[in-house]
Automatic annotation (TrEMBL):
The keyword Plastid does not apply. GO terms for cellular component: plasma membrane. It comes from Candidatus Carbonibacillus altaicus. Its main location: membrane. Keywords: Cell inner membrane, Cell membrane, Membrane, Transport. It is found in: Cell inner membrane. The keyword Membrane applies. This is ABC-type nitrate/sulfonate/bicarbonate transport systems periplasmic components-like protein. The lineage of its organism: Bacteria, Bacillati, Bacillota, Bacilli, Bacillales.
Length: 332
């Protein structure tokens, strides 16, 4: 009975998201011009360590140094992926750091966005109760993901497939990420996969352990991506190229994982140092390019998991021109 109620809740949440995704109304232009002629625009994010390149971009260019940039960036914090996608759809933000499967679903529903870069490399873990020895032990148990349209659901699917299990062998529930560590410690779930630092919380505090790193289940996985609305790119190409350049620089800075990086991350989210240190061990920010091969693997998973029947082709959803313009500027 309880499981049926959980399933009904999940179905309700998915239907709610689909309604939001489908509600493509009028789209006001959120960007504007400053008095000095710069393009001012808004990028959405969730407070997760996966968005560190964005945090570093903003943190490093604050104060008087920002005068050198041809744009003025405002980062807009969201409490859930659904709210963020809704804002993209409504034209309240010009782009976002968002889960790739959600970007694909948004594109399918008519939001004309483009993936312009990756958010990070690797950096996800499957966390389980210490009682779980391998994936087969999850049979008949409850496992949490943040959203069905997530890389974390794909990791869950890949783990079950590797263990010879089916998605129906485990009861999967959607749960807000901040609730997951407590749900694991209280025995309400046997494990979870989610963006960081929520996996590291359970491991650092000793009531969860890593069953798999993402690269063990899905090499070169795609999790978060940086998206921009196509109309923003078309209207403000120069500012978009400069922003992507600055975002890549933010990624290189984040990869040092030093005190400055931790300060930058803590400016945008609250996380204990030992938890952050663990999270940062698992992730890479040094290469934020986006490859067609990796996208093809994501497409295959999206179809296998039923997340998308016909995901958009690489050329329809990825805009390589911004990265290429950045690379051309760097060439001697
Ligand atoms: Zn991510």
């Amino acid at each position: 009975m309880a499981r049926r109620r959980v399933q009904r809740t999940i179905i309700g949440a998915w239907v709610g998201l689909l309604v939001l995704l489908g509600a493509c109304g009028a789209r006001p232009e959120p960007s504007s011009q400053t008095e000095t002629g710069k393009v001012r625009f808004k990028i959405g994010y969730l407070p997760i360590t996966h968005a560190a390149p964005l945090f570093l971009e903003k943190y490093r260019w604050n104060g008087s140094r920002a005068a050198y940039l041809p744009f003025e960036l405002e980062l807009v914090k969201f409490g859930s992926w659904t709210d963020l996608i809704d804002a993209l759809n409504a034209g309240k933000i010009d782009g976002a750091s968002v889960l790739a499967p959600l970007a694909v679903k948004a594109k399918e529903r008519g939001i004309d966005l483009k993936i312009v870069a990756s958010g990070h490399r690797d950096g996800n873990v499957v966390v389980v109760s210490p009682k779980i020895q391998d994936a087969a032990d999850l049979k008949g148990q409850t496992f949490a993901v943040p959203h069905k349209f997530s890389s974390h659901y794909i990791l869950f699917y890949a783990m079950l497939k590797k263990a010879g299990l089916h998605a129906t062998d485990v009861s999967v529930v959607e749960m807000p990420p901040p609730e997951m560590p407590a749900a694991l410690s209280e025995g309400r779930i046997a494990g979870y996969a989610v963006a960081e630092p929520f996996g590291a919380i359970a491991v650092a505090k000793g009531f969860g352990k890593v069953l798999y790193q993402s690269h063990e289940l899905w090499p070169d996985s795609i999790c978060c991506v940086l998206v921009l609305r196509k109309d923003f790119i078309d209207r403000h190409r120069e500012a978009a190229v400069a922003f992507v350049q600055s975002y890549f620089d933010g990624g290189h800075a984040a990869e040092s994982k030093d005190a400055e990086v931790k300060s930058a991350i803590n400016t945008f989210m609250s996380v204990e140092e030992k938890v952050l240190d663990l999270s940062l061990k698992w992730i890479r920010y040094d290469d934020l390019t986006f490859s067609e091969d990796a996208y093809d693997t994501l497409r295959t998973y999206l179809k296998e998991t039923g997340i998308s029947k016909q995901p958009p082709a690489y050329a329809d959803i990825v805009d390589e021109t911004l990265i290429k313009a950045v690379e051309a500027e760097k060439a001697p």
